[in-house]
Write a structure and sequence with these properties.
Elements: E1 11-14, E2 45-51, H1 74-79, H2 92-97, H3 99-106, E3 114-120, E4 129-134, E5 184-190, E6 201-209, E7 222-227, E8 233-237, H4 240-244, E9 249-253, E10 274-279, E11 285-291, E12 298-303
Antiparallel strand pairs: 1-2, 2-6, 3-4, 4-5, 5-6, 7-8, 8-9, 9-10, 11-12
Length: about 325
Amino acid sequence: VRDLLNSGKLYDGHFADMDNDSGDTLSDGVRCEANGPTPTEDNRGAGVWIEMSINNNHQLAPNADGLGDPGRTVGSALVDVNWNSLGGFPNDNMVRTALFTAANKIGVMELNRPEDLEWNPLDPSGTPRLYVVFTKNGRPTALEENGVLVDPANHGNPCDGDIDDDGTPDVPFGAPRRPDPVGSIFAVEEANPTNPADSLTFTFWAAWKGTEGTGPLDVANPDNAMIDAMGGVWFGTDGNYGRNGTADALYYLDLNPAHKAGQPDIVNPTFGKAMRLIAGPSDSEATGPAFTPDMNTIFFNVQHPGEGEPSVWPAR
């Protein structure tokens, strides 16, 4: 298995149209005000796969314009010891060793804590898609919207200070603290979904977003995802108990277009809704869901039951 990693190319997914203040809406170009719209299947965001190599001189660094050098390539930016106020990388092994720093150096859009991603070749939409699970966020970003590193001296909430009538802040813009306590699951569709290895661009949208509440369909903080043998999408949660007071569990996410409102014989549409199938013990994390090949048995891991509150499971 290790031999699979001895050769090939490593890519970062740059969600170019993402809003830097939220990490889950589309950018509207305005800071410290209402964020842009949630990306939907009909109103998608666009992204690009960026080859993370010092030899990549065919793609421009996402922050090239922001740093005043619009012709700067990814490879040139990575080796430059001053680019974006971060040290340079002498070779690709060092890039792979410190990939998050390398991504920050060239201005790749940060995301809201992705914890899993699963390729779905049998997606119920009829088009193969990749699903990315964002558990939640609340931490400040390292970069501005244009990919420029935030000055550590100004690394506070950019909306805490007063803003003048002309829109100019009284204090320097700092790093936005992402206001995402519930998480989401995004769908990613390659430019060539039938042969994704040929794609350097993709579109994305929110297939599902977490909610806060006590209703039967309220759930937050997705963690691990699973694609079943029929292309069904499942996920486990980590933090729903603390957010909504309901045990973390395994959920089935209905993404079958035939279950949308207005479709034949649909009275209660369930498209885009997550339904709990198996609950874990209190204050645990549901991870690693897996079916047996015949889909008659499902397994999942129960992590740290009773971590914050006493639990009587398993019986002792």
